[in-house]
Design goal:
The protein has about 150 residues and is α+β, with helices and mostly antiparallel strands. The chain has helices spanning about 20-25, 80-90, 100-110, 120-125, 135-154, and strands at about 1-5, 10, 45-50, 50-55, 70. Bound molecules: FE2/S2 (inorganic) cluster. FE2/S2 (inorganic) cluster binds near residues 38, 45 and 55.
Amino acid sequence: MTITVNGKAYHIEADPQMPLLWAIRDFIKLKGTKYGCGLGQCGACTVHMNGQAVRSCTIPLSAVGQKEITTIEGLSADGTHPLQQSWQACNVPQCGFCQAGQIMAAAALLKSNPSPSEEEVRQAMNGNLCRCGTYLRICKAVLQAAQSAESTSN
Ligand code: FES
């Protein structure tokens, strides 16, 4: 099976039912996307599939087909995505385990809603769990990234 991740095609010899997360981490060796629950409940494995946030632990390889997969490594070539900058400015991570999933969920939100309200951020990020409880900083960073993207586009 051939899948496209971060703009590059990878041929993967594996069971079509294998979760996409396994392909990303164990075959392609991109380790930014994390395994948390394996049940679609924590959001640590969030990647984009054709720009939509999905939980890669619940997507079988056979469902990927020609769709474009983007992982945290492909969000920006040099780590300068507004979210990556605001994440640093707001000192968001504590242990860091869930943060790639958080950023990918936030990036999908800002793509569909570039100027979300605080409530909209909270709702959109609701399913991404953080065991350190960095939720307030996550919300602040998402709002800050939205503002900075808005001010650079004006
Ligand atoms: Fe996929 Fe938890 S590891 S949602």
